[in-house]
Design brief:
By secondary structure, the protein is mainly α. It is built from 16 helices and no strands. The chain has helices at residues 2-6, 13-41, 54-86, 93-115, 129-151, 160-179, 192-227, 234-248, 263-275, 277-291, 295-300, 302-324, 327-333, 337-367, 374-407, 412-449.
Length: 456
């Protein structure tokens, strides 16, 4: 907490606090991911230490990536960008620093409790009830700070980034409480099929109503600014916003097509999964037409380059997601490494790269000095881009091997030897991403605490 107390002495302490939170927890989250990938190669590696077993490391990795790395990175950009768009200051930096501190305490508690085996045993909802409450309280504190900033604004027009950022925070607080069954502290779950339905309503919306709108809001600010050009179409941005809110909320049940949930709910999930092409292409057409003829400006701005690459990942993960919702496709792709690859493209490739790009764009604006080392930032970009692209290829191949083998009646253990080499490649790619995370911590701390540029 010494670091965060020091933030009180500089400008934008809330944004900088969330930036440091994102960088530090990204390093921890990618390390746990690397450890988990290594355990898939050598299952007995950590068998003597129960708190390092794969069953505990995986939920730590997943939750730290979402709530420790990507979420705070996007929060950091949001609490800087939103006041700039409204021509005012953040409502309360003191409340913001309190939120940052509480968020980090929550992440630490989540890491320790999950490593000790305290878990609700539900996908993306493993954290126990007291931590669930702290997450919701943190989101509500952040929303209050942002909405009060909107209330005291001097700019009458609400640019679309403001819409996306506010919606992301309040909708996530709601869906998180609902998906974690927060009103039942003893279990954190319902029973049977209703629990599966409500879990996947939340499980998919933790990406679609949390990471996605925050990422889009950051992209809508950074890309036009880097290109020195207005957004291609404000109308398209609003169409994309409302389509995302209406369509995305209903698609979680496509994870349960093999489960006896109501048929009408499955049909809605499949139809809306395919209909996701509307908000996705509204956003991508808007961004890509804004960039048209200005790729040089994107290449010259390291933050914009991260974000533009993230939009390309968004295209691939969204097309893949719509396909995976089709029953005939899902018979091959579900319950195997295809889904793991899909998740990495979405969370790291799309939202993660936009979070890092947002930080690299706004940090120099907040501190009025350049990034500590553009060379290191560029190296981090390539390490993460190659790593996540490799994940997409390797995990997709492994998933297709598994899916086709199981579809033809093969047993699980007979397939393991066939995909072992892909697990080795996966761990190697994970090492690249972990190295990129360490570079990011060093570069961010250097940018905040040291003046000038170490190297260009």
């Amino acid at each position: 907490m010494v670091i965060f107390r020091k933030l009180d002495t500089i400008s934008y302490p809330t944004a900088l606090g969330f930036a440091l939170t994102s960088a530090v927890w990204m390093a921890i989250a990618t390390f746990t991911g690397l450890l988990g990938a290594t355990e898939l190669i050598a299952p007995d590696l950590t068998s003597a230490w129960g708190w390092l077993e794969f069953g505990r490391i995986r939920p730590i990795h997943v939750n730290l990536v979402i709530f420790g790395f990507v979420g705070p990175g996007l929060f950091s950009a949001a609490v800087y960008i939103l006041p700039r768009l409204l021509r005012t200051s953040l409502y309360s930096e003191r409340l913001g620093v309190l939120t940052v501190s509480a968020w980090n305490i929550t992440l630490l508690a989540a890491t320790v409790s999950l490593s000790l085996g305290y878990s609700q045993g539900r996908e993306y909802a493993e954290m126990v009830w007291p931590i669930d409450v702290l997450i919701v309280v943190g989101l509500l504190l952040l929303f209050f700070n942002l909405v009060m900033t909107v209330r005291k604004r001097e700019e009458p027009v609400l640019y679309v980034s403001v819409w996306y950022m506010l919606a992301a925070v309040i909708l996530t607080a709601s869906t998180f409480a609902l998906g974690n069954v927060i009103w039942q502290p003893s279990t954190g779950a319902l029973a049977g099929i209703p629990d599966a339905i409500i879990l996947w309503f939340y499980g998919h919306n933790v990406f679609g109503l949390f990471l996605t709108p925050l990422s889009i809001g950051v992209a809508y600010y950074v890309i036009p600014r880097a290109c020195r050009a207005p957004l291609y179409s404000h109308t398209l941005s609003l169409i994309g916003f409302w389509a995302l809110i209406v369509v995305y909320t209903h698609i979680g049940t496509h994870h349960l097509l093999q489960v006896p949930v109501p048929t009408w709910l499955k049909v809605i999930a499949i139809v809306d999964s395919v209909a996701m092409v509307i908000p996705v292409m509204a956003f991508l057409i808007n961004i890509w037409y804004t960039v048209k003829g200005k790729l040089g400006e994107i290449h010259a701005d390291i933050g914009a380059r991260f974000i533009f690459s993230g939009t390309i990942m968004y295209f691939f993960v969204s097309i893949q997601g719509s396909m995976m919702a089709l029953p005939d496709v899902q018979r091959v792709t579900h319950f195997n490494n295809w889904v793991v690859g899909h998740a990495h493209i979405g969370v790291l490739g799309f939202s993660g790269m936009i979070a890092i790009g947002g930080l690299y764009h706004v940090l120099p604006l907040m501190l009025r000095r350049p990034v500590y080392s553009l060379f290191l930032a560029d190296l981090q970009y390539w390490l993460i881009l190659i790593g996540v692209s490799g994940f997409a290829v390797v995990l997709t191949i492994a998933g297709l091997i598994q899916g086709n083998a199981w579809l033809n009646g093969e047993t699980v253990y007979r397939v393991l030897s066939q995909i072992h080499v892909y697990y080795v490649i996966r761990a190697s790619l994970g090492l690249m991403i972990f190295t990129g995370a360490l570079i990011g911590v060093y570069n961010m701390v250097g940018t905040i605490w040291f003046r000038g540029e170490a190297s260009s």
